[in-house]
Amino acid sequence: MTTKSVLLIIGGGIAAYKSLELIRDLSKRGIRSKAILTSAGAEFITPLSVGSLTGAKCYTALFNLTDEAEMGHIELSRSADLLVVAPATADLLAKPALGVANDLASTALLATDKPVLYAPAMNVRMWQHPAVQRNVATLKDDGALFVGPGEGDMACGEFGFGRMAEPSDIADAVEAHFAGRSDGRLNGRHIVVTAGPTHEPIDPVRYLANRSSGKQGYAIAASLARMGAQVTLISGPTELPSPAGVATVRIQTAREMMDATMKALPADAAVCCAAVADYRPEIETEHKIKKERGGLSSIALEENPDILNALSKLDVGRPKLVVGFAAETDDILCNANAKRKRKGCDWIVANDVSTGTGTMGGDNNTVTILSEAGEESWENMPKTQVAGRLASYIADELNKRSC
Ligand code: PMT
Question: Is the predicted pLDDT of residue 269 greater than 50, yes or no?
């Protein structure tokens, strides 16, 4: 196998220090890197530390005649298999989105004929600014890949989305991109995936939820994207960064998940992996319920809409393949099959979520795929492997149905 190489563009953000760890992580995975450090990036880390870790010259300026003689900026951006921008600041997202090239980093981004993976990092309000979101949407339309940002505490003291994805997650996305490069079995397909729990508010500080981490659904979305599908991931609240190349819509409640899922249609397939709360409090109070007044001794509940059921029974615009999941603790296959028939989906993936299995929140899963044609049980394996195999089955099925 030939060694893959990355051109890492390091922007000016506090997360720049993490790019040093990224270089090491990539190198451990056998991926070579060269780096461009922007002048703002050089305020946070030095060209010497970058060059020491890549084992190559760290490029900094556009009009360095030696660089241009040795390797022009065009060759620099084309000699790599993938460009990775980490941290991708608002500035580094804006320039390629608008076609601006006025330094080495932005010139390399416009001159390249290779895919680009952005790992955004900025303050939450900057990330949410409509101008930044417009630029992200433009870059995605142009085929750019994204990993993160994640949610959490920021260096500026605020909390929210804008934290750069962890170096290992960026390296995973790079590796996944290289692993999936040749597999275009889902090219041209749009697939909607739901993942994670939903939070059903009781009052401003409390909610009903479950133990789903989103790991299984995110892994499925990532696998489908690697196979060339355009993936819309409708996610409940999770700690996970958006998988590379996936459009992630974040929601809180079952009703929001239903709206977002229907809005994402038309789709060739839908995979409902989310652990949607079946019920929500009948009343969401505006003020915090006081314990002293006994307001929480009982909570009246009402049923949430069932997304899988609604998708499977659409008269117009039903995805060709609808896959549900069944989280069961007993009589697993029998209950799962009854669920498949009742909700009307084509396949249902049964998994045992009883205490001790670690399925909910853990890294592994043991599943059985049930369909009209019968059942197939898979051995216990990492959720990423379940995802890869399921994505492959979905590709085969969609291609069979198109014949
Ligand atoms: O997130 P992880 O920690 O990785 O864990 C993965 C998982 C165990 C959550 C996942 O593999 C799984 O089993 N997801 C479905 C969990 C679930 O809610 O199952 P259910 O039996 O309650 O629902 C059956 C199906 O109907 C599911 O496809 C569910 O998404 C769907 N549903 C349920 C209720 C509802 N209101 N709307 C729905 O669409």
Answer: yes
Band the pLDDT of 68: cuts 50, 70, 90: low
Instruction: Kindly state whether residue 276 falls inside one of the protein's structural domains.
Output: yes
Give SS3 for 164: coil
Residue 320, domain extent: 190-402
Q: Could you tell me if the CB of 326 is within 6 A of ligand 1?
A: yes
Whether 182 has a pLDDT exceeding 50, the answer reads no
Check if the beta carbon of residue 9 is closer than 8 Å to that of residue 35: yes
- State how far the Cα of 371 lies from the Cα of 363, in Å rounded to an integer: 25
Residue ending a domain, among 178, 203, 230, is: 178
Does 219 sit in the ligand 1 pocket, CB within 6 Å?
A: no
Considering only CA atoms, give the Rg of the chain.
23
Do 97 and 169 lie in one domain? The reply is yes
Looking at residue 3, what is its pLDDT?
Answer: 85
Ranking 116-125, 145-154, 295-304 by mean pLDDT, the lowest is 145-154
Is 398 a member of any domain? Answer: yes
Residue 184 placed within a domain: no
152: confidence class by pLDDT, cuts 50, 70, 90: confident
Active-site amino acid positions = 156
Q: Which of 157, 178, 199 is a domain's end point?
A: 178
Q: Return d(Cα 301, Cα 304) in angstroms, integer.
A: 9
Structure tokens at 347: 């396949």
Rounded-to-integer distance, Cα 224 and Cα 366, Å: 20
C-alpha closest to that of 321 among 337, 344, 350: 344
97 close to ligand 1 (CB < 6 Angstrom): no
Atom of ligand 1 nearest to the CA of 362: 3
For ligand 1, atom 5, name the residue with the nearest CA: 360
State the CATH number of the domain containing residue 221.
3.40.50.10300
What are the phi and psi torsion angles at 276 (to 5°)? -75, 135
CA distance 144 to 147: 10
pTM for this structure? 0.65
- Looking at the structure of the chain, the number of domains it has is 2
183 within a domain of the structure (yes/no): no
Q: Is the CB of 37 under 6 A from ligand 1?
A: no
94: left (phi over 0), alpha (psi -120 to 50) or beta: alpha
Residue type for position 327:
A
